[in-house]
Design brief:
5 helices, two-stranded antiparallel sheet, alpha/beta, 6-stranded parallel β-sheet, Rossmann fold
């Protein structure tokens, strides 16, 4: 049995001071470090939002659009975001306190300017795969614990895709090692995860 920890987008861009800051996003970093240290994981994987500067989810790429308005991308409704996590920028770097030396594999995502990619496993149109599922299968992963930023977007979609794309794998969401953008959205995300059989746990359940 191979147990993996998936850290979703713990980057400067989603922490206070970043271009798309999640409230208290930085508060999860010490918890993530403790999980890497003492969670008993065989494999530690991190996803990294890695957008080109002209990414279509950016409001700046659409005349008359402002951040947090709804628009359209790849024929689907799309939240328009501030420019964030642009490839090679400080905003895209992992939080400086995250112990990245313990990460075995980094999966970059959101590189196609024509479609957004919340999930660490595939683009939002569900056609292009990142390759993460194949990597985890190649390591015979049978359990995945997921946490990071933001609960109501990238973490939720990554967890749901883990269930679908890694059949037979036990998937858990670590609540206190995650933060969300909208409190109502966080509760809805938890309900969606529970409905797919994803257990909601805290780091204390894992660390004791």
């Amino acid at each position: 049995m191979t147990k993996a920890l998936l850290l979703v987008d713990i980057q400067n861009g989603f922490c206070p001071g970043g271009n798309l800051a999640v409230p208290e996003g930085d508060k999860i970093v010490p918890i993530a470090n403790r999980l890497m240290d003492a969670g008993g994981y065989d494999l530690i994987v991190a996803s990294q939002d890695w957008h080109p500067a002209n990414h279509g989810s950016f409001a700046s790429q659409h005349a008359g659009k402002h951040p947090f308005e709804m628009g359209e991308l790849a024929g689907q409704p799309q939240m328009m975001w501030p420019d964030h996590c642009v490839q090679g920028s400080k905003d895209a770097e992992f939080h400086p306190d995250l112990e990245t030396g313990k990460i075995d594999y980094i999966q970059q995502k959101g590189e196609d300017p024509a479609v957004d990619s919340y999930s660490a496993f595939r683009d939002n149109d569900q056609t292009a795969l990142t390759g993460l599922a194949d990597y985890l299968k190649s390591k015979d992963v049978t359990a995945v614990d997921i946490c990071g930023l933001a609960t109501d977007y990238c973490v939720k979609f990554s967890a749901l895709d883990a269930v679908e794309m890694l059949p037979g794998t036990t998937v858990r969401f670590i609540s206190d090692a995650s933060r969300g953008i909208d409190p109502a959205g966080v509760e809805q995300a938890k309900e969606e995860m529970r409905a797919k059989g994803i257990a909601i746990v805290d780091s204390t359940d894992i660390l004791g």
